[in-house]
Amino acid sequence: MSTVVPRPDAAPSWCAGPYADALRTGRGPLFLRRPDGWLLPLDVERWCAAPDPADLSALRRCAGPVLDIGCGPGRLVAALAALGRRTLGIDVSEAAVRHTLELGGTALRRSVFETLPGEGRWGTALLMDGNIGIGGDPAALLARVAELLAPRGLLIAETAPVDIDERVRVHLDDGRGRADPDEVFPWARIGTPALLGYARAAGWQVADQWSADGRSFVALRRRDPREGAAGRAARGVPDPHRAHPAQHPAARQPRPVPASRPDRDTDHVRTAHHSADPANSAAVTSSHRVRNTPAGRVVDRS
Ligand SMILES: C[S@@+](CC[C@H](N)C(=O)[O-])C[C@H]1O[C@@H](n2cnc3c(N)ncnc32)[C@H](O)[C@@H]1O
């Protein structure tokens, strides 16, 4: 059973404009830009290249069929497919999905918050390259990923390499003034301590955490819903029905700061937006798990 988060706004955000152009050329500059001018550079060149050693450190830990959430141009989907691992990329951006298909991967144009193939059966979900920020509410995204994974399935998430827990509203900007400030969407940046706080409060087990090439990663194991309180207590995992996220420091209410703070990507600027990123849902690929129909519907045959 899936929770489909209603679309709080219809901003195309990642679906066209500067992001599509950057994926077409394989180059930036591209930034997430806050209305007050703060910029977070996006590593388009790396996303469009072959997986690097830090990527491979995450791919080595994957188990079972892999769902790459926000797969972008698809370097990880293609690499996993080449290794013979059953992998599906999902992304709201048509350009990203097309690129993934061109690399030989399987991908679907769909938001993580919409109904997806194989819900409850994925062995590993990937949230790489800052994608834990999708929707601007890490706790909500963790809850959604828990629905997608099989019992004891693995979430591998890349975290910000600094101790941060921030919610922002941003738009995509190519640095040349080609940006539509109306296309603002919620995003989050979260470091490992904060992610572990959210995860533990929701009953996830920490399977691993590591750094590679200056990037930070966490592997979380989904609790088996059939597992009782005794098993959790033995592992020191709080009962998710008792633990309230607010009990963990990382999950405290964000502290608003003035919007006029300087342009620093290390600013812990927090706003209280909790809406999920909207997306289109046209299927643009086929595989043994999903296929196109003439009407563009996706059929889950897994
Ligand atoms: C920070 S980029 C990460 C790029 C990607 N991991 C890569 O390897 O190139 C975020 C990606 O997530 C996608 N995205 C944003 N919101 C999404 C959503 N609700 N569901 C699925 N994908 C989403 C964007 O289109 C974009 O490709």
TrEMBL record:
<feature type="region of interest" description="Disordered">
    <location>
        <begin position="222"/>
        <end position="302"/>
    </location>
</feature>
<keyword id="KW-0808">Transferase</keyword>
<feature type="compositionally biased region" description="Low complexity">
    <location>
        <begin position="246"/>
        <end position="260"/>
    </location>
</feature>
<dbReference type="GO" id="GO:0032259">
    <property type="term" value="P:methylation"/>
</dbReference>
<keyword id="KW-0489">Methyltransferase</keyword>
<protein>
    <submittedName>
        <fullName>Methyltransferase domain-containing protein</fullName>
    </submittedName>
</protein>
<dbReference type="Pfam" id="PF13489">
    <property type="entry name" value="Methyltransf_23"/>
</dbReference>
<dbReference type="InterPro" id="IPR029063">
    <property type="entry name" value="SAM-dependent_MTases_sf"/>
</dbReference>
<feature type="compositionally biased region" description="Basic and acidic residues">
    <location>
        <begin position="261"/>
        <end position="276"/>
    </location>
</feature>
<dbReference type="GO" id="GO:0008168">
    <property type="term" value="F:methyltransferase activity"/>
</dbReference>
